[in-house]
Design goal:
Blueprint: H1 4-7, E1 13-14, H2 16-20, E2 26-30, H3 33-41, H4 45-56, E3 63-69, E4 81-86, H5 93-135, E5 139-143, H6 146-166, E6 171-175, E7 180-184, H7 188-198, E8 201-205, H8 210-217, H9 222-231, E9 234-238, E10 243-248, H10 250-270, H11 276-293
Parallel strand pairs: 1-3
Antiparallel strand pairs: 2-4, 3-4, 5-7, 6-7, 8-10, 9-10
Helix pairs in contact: 4-5, 8-10, 9-10
Length: 323
């Protein structure tokens, strides 16, 4: 009986004033906004099911009704929702009091549970939204080293303000404590552009020979200064550690690394040790390939230069080059 009205699919109307006029045999409990919306969404079925255990302690003497107030005259969808409890005999008042207490406690627990569920759902939806925007390139997050963060905060964060002015992004969030930068925008290209201007990348090339380091530096530092000027990255050379350190925004570091590696490759090619025996081997291999594949205008196959073929006739010999 207590579930019959909920199973009908709509909440019935009843007078709260009338039910409260007989407190000996009836009780009326109000619901909060979340519980009201929950009850209206399915005609009170789930709410009635949630309260059924408390109602069962009435041993069948207590009737429960989930209803909307009808005292306002004209029925409206936003009328408050109540839980009504009543008994048919005065002898069951003690049972009614017990059920009322249990239903009231259960309603309070349901309110807290639904609030937490709603908050968890909202949080999960927000996380999914953020992850989708990260995947689409509309959000990004990256960390900076201590010095890089200090440099970024110099002059009242002038660099951050400059990036916001020149890049079409919604906001740049600087978390100085975590040394983290977060960028949000509506255009993935603009977000990537802002990141490239703020992020500091580091690359190191180790075990570089001294002569290669000197080639990278150049006369009076001309070469390394040219690399820095062309790319915008900071390039430092350590002869003690035989290493090259490159620092700057990601695109600048990538460009500088290409130029530095090109210098090292040039050094490696120019300083290949070639012995006389190696040169002889190279000459012999070139001659073999020339003979097999006809690398010259005159081909010597099967006899070398000692067998030049017939002198009179044939295009291959020296004697007659044609008519």
């Amino acid at each position: 009986r207590e579930l019959a009205q909920a199973l009908s699919g709509a909440l019935p109307r009843a007078s709260v004033r009338a039910m409260r006029s007989n407190p000996a045999r009836s009780r009326v409990l109000a619901t909060d906004g979340n519980t009201k919306a929950w009850a209206l969404s399915d005609g009170g079925r789930e709410l009635a099911q949630a309260l059924s255990e408390a109602l069962s302690c009435g041993d069948g003497a207590v009737t429960m009704t989930i209803f909307q107030d009808a005292d306002g005259g004209v029925a409206r969808e936003d009328d408050d929702v109540y839980v009504g409890l009543d008994v048919s005999k005065d002898a069951h008042v003690d049972v009614l009091d017990r059920v009322e207490m249990l239903v009231e406690v259960t309603l309070g627990d349901l309110v807290r549970i639904r609030r937490r569920v709603a908050a968890a759902s909202l949080l999960e939806n927000e996380r999914l939204k953020i992850q989708d925007e990260i995947d689409a390139g509309l959000r990004c997050e990256f960390s900076l080293g201590y010095k890089a963060m200090q440099d970024l905060l110099m002059d009242g964060g002038a660099k951050v303000k400059h990036v916001q002015n020149v890049c079409d992004v919604d906001r740049v969030v600087v978390d100085a404590r975590q040394r983290t930068i977060r960028i949000v925008g509506k255009d993935a290209r603009e977000v990537a552009r802002a990141r490239d201007m703020l992020e500091v990348a580091h690359e190191t090339i180790e075990a570089v020979p001294d002569l290669a380091l000197r080639m990278i530096v150049g006369k009076g530092g001309a070469k390394v200064n040219d690399i820095q000027k062309r790319t915008g990255a900071h390039v430092s050379v350590s002869f003690d550690k035989n290493s090259v350190f490159v620092r700057g925004c990601p695109s600048a570091v990538k460009s500088a690394m290409i130029l530095v590696k090109s210098c090292i490759k040039t050094y490696e090619v120019e300083h290949v040790e070639v012995t006389p025996e190696t040169l002889d081997d190279v000459r012999e291999e070139l001659a073999r390939l020339d003979m097999e594949w006809g690398g010259s205008n005159v081909h010597y196959v099967g006899g070398g230069r000692g067998n030049r073929g017939p002198r009179n006739g044939g295009r291959g010999g020296y004697g007659n080059r044609g008519d």
